[in-house]
C-alpha cells in the first residue's frame, strides 16, 4: 500500500512533472514472472526513476547504510527505502555477500523483479566498470532472464556528494532480456560466472555510449581517495 501511494500519489507525479523522465524499451521487461534488472549505476536516484517508469514493482538490493541513519533524516530515508521495496544488504564480503545473495533469491523466488547494480557501487566518473559475479550466480540459481537497463543523465541531475537535484531530464533504455539457460547447473563454475557477468556488462555498454574500463569501480574509488589525502 505504501509503495502504491509513493509511486502514484505522493512522489511519482511530482517527480514526473519536474524531471519528465523518458523510457525506451519498456516492453522488454517481462509482464509477469521473475527477472533480474541489471542496471548501470550513476546516481542515488537510479533506484527511484527505474521503478517509477515501470508498471511492475522492483526490489533493489540497497546498501545497509541507508537503513541505519540517525535523526529525522535517517528515519525519513529508512522509511522511504522500506516503503519502496528496497532491501538492505551488507557489502563487506564473505558471509555478508552470501546473505545478500540469498535475499535476492528470495525476491526472485516470489516471482518478482529484482534490481541489481552489477558494478557493486556508483560509478565515480560516469564510466562503466567491471561487474561483480553475484548477478550471474543469482540468474543461474533462480533460472531467470537478465534484462540490461541503462540509466541516462542521472549523474548530471544528482552527482555523487550533492544533496539538491538539478532540473535535468533523465532517461532509461531497456535492452532485450538475456537468456543464460545454456549454463544451467554451472553456478559453481567461477569461469562461467565471469563469462556471464562480462556478457551482461557488454550488453549494458552497447545500450549507450558509456566508456568501459575493465576494473572494479570500488578500486577506482579507492585510488581517488588516496589522491585526495
From TrEMBL:
Domain Phospholipid/glycerol acyltransferase: 35-154
InterPro entries: Plipid/glycerol_acylTrfase
UniProt keyword Acyltransferase present: yes
Keywords: Acyltransferase, Transferase
SUPFAM superfamilies (UniProt xref): Glycerol-3-phosphate (1)-acyltransferase
Name of the protein in question: Lysophospholipid acyltransferase family protein
GO MF terms, alphabetically ordered: acyltransferase activity
CDD domains: LPLAT_AGPAT-like (cd07989)
Keyword Metal-binding: no
Top-rank taxon, per record: Bacteria
